[in-house]
Amino acid sequence: MQSKHTLQLAAFVSIVSLASHALPQTISAAPSHNTRPPSTKQWEFTLITDGYIIPDQQSYANPNFTADHRWLHLEARYNSEDFRTGSAWIGYNFAAGKNLVLNVTPMIGVAFGRTNGVAPGCEAALTYKKLQASISNEFVFATGKSSSFYYNWPQVTYSPVDWLQLGLVAQRTKTYQTSLDTQRGFFVGVSHKNMEVTSYVFNAGWTDPTVVLELGLSF
After folding, report:
1. From CA 198, how far away is CA 215, in angstroms rounded?
2. Which terminus of the chain has a smaller tally of CB atoms within 10 A, N or C?
3. Domain that includes residue 158, residue range
4. How many domains does the chain have?
5. pLDDT digits (tens, 9 = 90+) for 118-161
6. Domain harbouring 164, CATH code
């Protein structure tokens, strides 16, 4: 019998697939949870490092490196699927629409370290003017003694000016645990040229808040 999280992932992928066929398609790079407009460069690289400050638990850094060349998306992560766990990904970038823009990157990855397994995933963003809804999610089919699990990071971003990002965010993760299965919060980010700095606050008002400080570089 399929698990609830597997059915949720399958439903999300089906919705994205139907939306992409309803709009004329063009090729562009699809970003991760801090979304950027498509680039005209042959290759585009990003390095995003999240520093997690967790009450009564060990703080840690979560670096993510991506490389995009037209339709090709490559990605490497550490401390993302689990603590002391790396992962490598390959995906296909595509986009559709003009005023209402849909960016989607279906991916397949492998995790290795504390957790080992195979992970299908998808990153998607729907953008209209200054408003954007995005999600990064995956289902890890773990091997050995590790348990399979579903991860997601949905986010809604509003940019009143080009250099300022405000929004709401949620997260379901295995890397650390709180009293909430799905953490929720808000964020404030600023950007300048190829650099972004963002501060996320999760669980404020529900339990002791977790703070995530993020630095993003593109080149």
Report:
1. 7
2. N
3. 4-218
4. 1
5. 999 999 999 999 999 999 999 999 998 889 999 999 999 999 99
6. 2.40.160.40
